[in-house]
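User: Before I run my own analysis I want an independent prediction to cross-check against. Here's the chain; please return only the structure tokens and, at the end, one sentence I can use as a sanity check.
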Amino acid sequence: MPGERRTLIVIVITAATMVVEIVAGIAFGSMALLADGLHMASHASALAISLFAYVYARRHAHDERFCFGTGKVNSLAGFTGAVLLALFALLMAWESLGRLLHPVEIAFNQAIGVAILGLLVNGLSVFILDYGDPHGHHDGGHEEPPPAEHQHEHHDHNLRSAYFHVLADALTSVLAIFALLSGKYLGLSWLDPVMGVVGAILVARWSTGLVQTTSRVLLDHQGPEAIRRAVRQNLEERAGATVVDLHLWEIGPGAYCLAVSLVASDPRPPEHYRQFLPPDARLAHVTIEVHQVA
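Assistant: Structure tokens:
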């Protein structure tokens, strides 16, 4: 699977650079550099969880114990990664505030060199994970969910998540370089721990958004309003039935489950109404219940 291979490559690169930045940040006294290293550590952990989700979903794609396939493994991995990000953000903020109150001497030349190395590595990771703008859909009416590998090819949330992870890493590296250059040439050494706090805030904001997104999937939040509206309009305006109950929820990346109850004066078999479902709604499982108007 392309996303799995790309993620593995970036994990190796990120982990190696993470170790260099954390060791250098401690050795050279740079909190911004240490924060960047911890930021990369958080993303390496999240990427490792994403890789595990890829492998697990692929190996259990046809496991009958999973009623709707293994698509939600990705959301569970994202939620776990978000919790790790939040913990790293707290650690970064605590250490940065400590450096503000108790400054330490910074070896600017060495720290700047390592920060630039980190930025180059992040740029390479962005290039590797450049997922482009993949578009695709699953035809409505499938009784069985599409294979996990096809879901990832068309709507790879894991790959997209990893992509924005390394983009955030690159931004943190830029902040670290800015803080170190300001400290060396302008004497603004206090900017170094301040950039550590800024990095912590960025990580916290990212983790909060990821928690909200993944928890909606894990808790079977109602699917997109646009798809629900299209389903309702097609069934009522084209098929001549009345929708009395409709449930749409996400069961995997780019795949939805639909359960709908209809009433009609002249009820037809469920298969008749199935043909009126929006073809671009990415419906992997469909249940249609039809009743006659009392």
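Sanity check: The chain has two domains: 2-218, 225-292.
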